[in-house]
């Protein structure tokens, strides 16, 4: 308010100096004291009718789907087209490193999968091979050589060798492979990529264990001991969870670990299911899935699947190390999701899947029985 207004206001009578809200309040109070009861009722009815309504569930759903849609559209490569052929080379310049990594992984894995069939088709996947070759050349130019380049090269070599053994010698591909390979520093070389031969005996030796009891003894834990969970245990569990299957082996999941009391409290303050035990957790984890890994419209919900499966592996891995866990839902609307991201520094490209409270078990504790449905309700045999 400038001087002129304040000075002129000063000369107005009191009621003219009140704000509209103050006037409304006074008017309401006079009305409620003076109006006869039948008019008062009518007034209240009118007031209730004209009260601003909270958005309908349908509107909120739309708003939240839009939030997911916009982030998927922005970060995935769906809009850019996943079939980037080598003659459309400049297309790669629009991509982030993670985008490019996802496309490369998708393609090298397509070749690995093809080679792992009982009877691979000679010369299969020519477009994929060309795409992959062009993408790793570009990747190497932009970012140098890393494990992904080496895995891709190893896969392409396995592909070349398979075809060579079948009488198809693709010399051009061999030269291209070697030109990328020559740029990889010797002591950085790794052998992964392609296929490996395994036996049923080996699988059975390690996999045929009594998992029934392992599954049966995992409970959601809501009572932890005071003992600190060493970070090395979390690392071991994450290492195990890395074996989780993911779409085209793109490994979209990440795990954020919070150990400091204040950080854990901050994270948990956005979550609605940890009251009474969250503060006892020695570590609070947030599992995310990076949207930059997804390449088509059909994959719009893939983050929830990849991330959910990863979280499950992680929970079982922690269980195998003797730790207690409780999954904590991230069933929130976009406003809360944004608040958490801002508070703890999680990029918009990450879909938050869930939190996991982790702690050591006390000697004795109660768990919810959480009875399960009968198998007949679940297993539909067609
Ligand atoms: C995605 C997900 C979110 C969950 N969120 C919560 C939560 O916020 N708070 C909680 O106390 N339990 C939570 N739980 C634990 C479930 O209540 C529990 O898994 C279920 O009742 C089965 O019990 P059990 O885990 O002991 O076998 C969650 C579980 C899942 C899978």
What report would you give on this structure?
The protein is an alpha+beta fold. It has three domains: 3-50, no CATH class; 83-188; 201-360, 3-Layer(aba) Sandwich (NADH Oxidase), CATH 3.40.109.10. Helices cover 51% and strands 8% of the residues. It has helices spanning 3-10, 14-17, 20-34, 37-50, 57-75, 97-115, 126-143, 147-165, 171-181, 200-207, 211-216, 231-241, 261-268, 302-320, 334-344, 375-378; strands at 253-258, 283-290, 323-329, 350-360. The protein has a four-stranded antiparallel β-sheet. The longest helix has 19 residues, at 57-75. The radius of gyration is 30 Å and the shape is extended. Flavin mononucleotide binds next to β3.
Brief summary:
This is Nitroreductase domain-containing protein. The protein is an alpha+beta fold and 382 residues long. The protein has helices at 3-10, 14-17, 20-34, 37-50, 57-75, 97-115, 126-143, 147-165, 171-181, 200-207, 211-216, 231-241, 261-268, 302-320, 334-344, 375-378; strands at residues 253-258, 283-290, 323-329, 350-360.
Spatial strand order of the main sheet: 1-2-4-3
The amount of helix comes to 40-55%
CATH class of the largest domain: Alpha Beta
List cofactors, ions and other ligands. Answer: flavin mononucleotide
Helix/strand/pairing class, anyone?
A: alpha+beta
Mean pLDDT: 91
Q: Could you give the order of the helices and strands? A: HHHHHHHHHHHHEHEHEHEH
Overall body shape: extended
Compute the number of strand runs: 4
CATH superfamily of the largest domain: NADH Oxidase
Unreliable sequence segments = 1-8, 82-89
- Taken together, the total number of domains comes to 3
Head-to-tail CA distance between termini = 76 Å
CATH topology of the largest domain: NADH Oxidase
Task: Examine the secondary-structure arrangement and name the CATH architecture of the largest domain.
Answer: 3-Layer(aba) Sandwich
The number of helical runs is 16
Quick one: biggest sheet? 4 strands, antiparallel
Indicate the radius of gyration in whole angstroms: 30 Å
